[in-house]
Amino acid sequence: MTNVPATIQERITMPATLRPGVAESSSALTPADLFAMVRRRIVLVCVLFIVFSGIAVGTFLVVWRYFPLYSARAMVELVSNLPRAELTVQQERLRQDELERFVLTQAKYLESPDILNEALRLKEVRETQWYRSIKEKDLLKELTEDLSAGPMRGTNFMAVSMACRDPNDPHVIVNAVVRRWLTIARERSTESYREQLDAATARLQRLDVQIEADDDRLDAMAANLPGGAAYQDVNINAQQVLKYGEQVTMLELELAQLGQFREIYNDPGGVAVTAEDRAVIEQDPNVQELARRAFVIRQQLSVDSANMGSKHPLTKSLTAQLETANESLEELRRQKLQERRADMREAANTAYLNTQHALFVTKENLRKAEAELEDQDRQLFRYQNLKAQIEEDKELRSKYRDYVNNLRQIKDQRTAMTVNIAQPAIRPIDRSRPRPILLPVSIFLALCLAVGVALALELLDTSVRTPQDIVRHLDIATLGVIPHVDDEEITIDQVETAVRDAPRSMIAEAYRRIRTNLQFSAPAARQRAILITSPQPEDGKTSVAINLAMVVAQGARRVLLVDANFRRPGIARFFSEVPNRGLSNILIGEGSLSSHAVPSGIPLMDILGSGPVPPNPAELLGSEQFGAFLEDAISRYDQVIIDTAPVLLASDALVVSTAMDGTILVVRAKENSRGAARRACTLLLDVNAHLFGAVLNAAQVTRGGYFREQLRTYYDYQLEGEMQAAAAAGLSLPKGPSADEAENGRGA
């Protein structure tokens, strides 16, 4: 509504950038807050402390006088003797944790009904005053409750204690119970060792029988094993497997080579004629004969050709014979080569088949040898396991023999448990309960309980009571706190016009402080139009609006107070000058501000009533006519203060707040819950309303609360100033009551 740029730095920063619900997570209580809570409830704390401490002191004195207890305690040393360790002559002792469990077990046994019943039959116990004061049927129950036994931590001592009202009884009963327990415990401990001896002896006999049977089985298994296998010497089956494995490898290599030869000789064109083949063919007799004949003919042809010439018929005949002989020789050579190839092929096939058969036989032998070796390994494994089991059983038998011997020694010597009565119970010389230290402790606990009750009441109260509650739970600034009218020293008939009716009252001073805080919260140009609202009805927003308008007018500023609460108009009840026509008439075009605003009787302050109640208040307040009205009002007045309906009941305040420079939320102390106030702030911030802060209304004066110190000094200081002024003018004024006297007169 103003033209002041938003970059102007306000003098008091408002935390409007945070949501009201966010502050709840950071609202941790500080020691100062707890101290303030205690101060507010100091009267309750004192009353509760007196009551609780009185009960504690009275109870202590009654118990001290009529129910004293005298305690006696005996200490017993217990040592459990275990059988000696193997191959040693030293007696083994229990570890510390085992010793504590052992002592605790004995303590529980001492508290058992068997021991206590035996002790109740003793003559010295039956003659005590404790025995005579209890019914016979309740003796065991009372003794179980009164007598206690337990280990003393870090030692092998057991403490047995009892408390009685007669100082002549506890030591007698404790010593009697300890003696009776000692007798029974020794017998019981040796009985347990006797049972252990019988069990150990039976176990030893079973071990002897089992070892003898296992030895027979071991001999039978050794007889079935191959020679040397039982002693891991020469293993015949392993050697056979190794030999057959090597043979299989060699035969597989040989078979692969023969297969290659076989493939070569089976292929007719795959083998070339070698020198060896030629030598074998030439050594054949038929080939040699034909070669000799061809050689003779060749010699004869050479001689005849030289003598008769090449064209001689004889020469030609020899030439034809030589050709025929050569052809026969070549044919014979080819025939012999084929015969040799056939022989080689047959030999290769025969060798391949023989080697294949030998490989098959060798593999069968290898499988048989491996099966025999595997069976032998299984037998040998069982043999070794049985042999190891026999060794373990023999070692265990040796331990059991030593254990049985030690148990027999303990049983014969009755040394299963060593018990020494380190300190018998003696007659008590002073009462043990109640202890004097309980008196200051109980008083301190009474104080803590009183403070705890007060803090619990404070924490269970979820209403807004202090400015700290507003800052912590609403996360907005506190503009001021208005005291409750009942706490005023000056009679105020109408709190709505307290500034006018009682200008020197504490309430009027509180409104002046709100005016000052509001002036410093933002520049004057940014607070021309102010909205006053509250979460719920009866929170005092109308009272705050009227009184705030009065103090603004008293500050020499023209102010217009507007009643925009069409739901329940309230300003007209306190100003008879306000006519029936007002804001609603202006918004529907029936008149203007100058024709409907009336003077309030206070200089510089005019009032505009609500006028007739319209059927649609929210739509009317959100119309353009309302904006035009607000601009007209701001142009005529220095400040416009508008009172509207509560935020949580109607949307009027939300609609109007968007057109205002700022909004003041009125929270009534002890009436508005924190949740309702947070919801109101959330609704206003959701429509981007600017919150100047909150006013805590009707804050009551309580010890440790707000205004208590002000009430003590405010009126005394004011009265002193009036007396000095009257003395200067030559007048005399009666001295009124002080704040403390007035407070005492009201019984506050």
Sheet/helix structural class = alpha/beta
Provide the residue-averaged pLDDT: 81
CATH class of the largest domain: Alpha Beta
What is the rounded Rg?
62 Å
Could you give a short account of the major beta sheet?
8 strands, mixed
The helix tally amounts to: 25
Into which percentage range does the β-strand content fall?
5-15%
Instruction: Strand order, main sheet: write it out.
Output: 5-12-11-6-10-7-9-8
Q: How many domain regions?
A: 5
Q: Your description of this structure?
A:
The relative contact order is 0.11. Helix content is 58%, strand content 10%. The model is unreliable at 1-26, 84-90 and 729-748 (pLDDT under 50). The strands form two sheets. It has an eight-stranded mixed beta sheet, sandwiched between helices. A four-stranded antiparallel beta sheet has the order 2-3-1-4. α4 (113-120) crosses α7 (139-146). It has helices at 31-40, 42-66, 96-110, 113-120, 123-126, 129-132, 139-146, 170-224, 236-266, 275-282, 285-308, 313-413, 438-460, 467-474, 498-501, 506-521, 541-554, 583-587, 593-596, 617-621, 624-636, 652-657, 674-686, 708-729, 739-746; strands at residues 70-80, 147-151, 157-164, 417-423, 478-483, 529-533, 559-563, 598-599, 605-608, 639-643, 662-668, 691-699. The protein is of the alpha/beta class and 748 residues long. It has five domains: 31-67 and 435-459, no CATH class; 70-190 and 418-423, Alpha-Beta Plaits, CATH 3.30.70; 236-399; 464-706, P-loop containing nucleotide triphosphate hydrolases (Rossmann fold), CATH 3.40.50.300; 713-748, no CATH class. A hairpin with a 5-residue loop joins β8 (598-599) and β9 (605-608). The longest helix is centred in the middle third of the chain and has 101 residues, at 313-413. It is flat, with a radius of gyration of 62 Å.
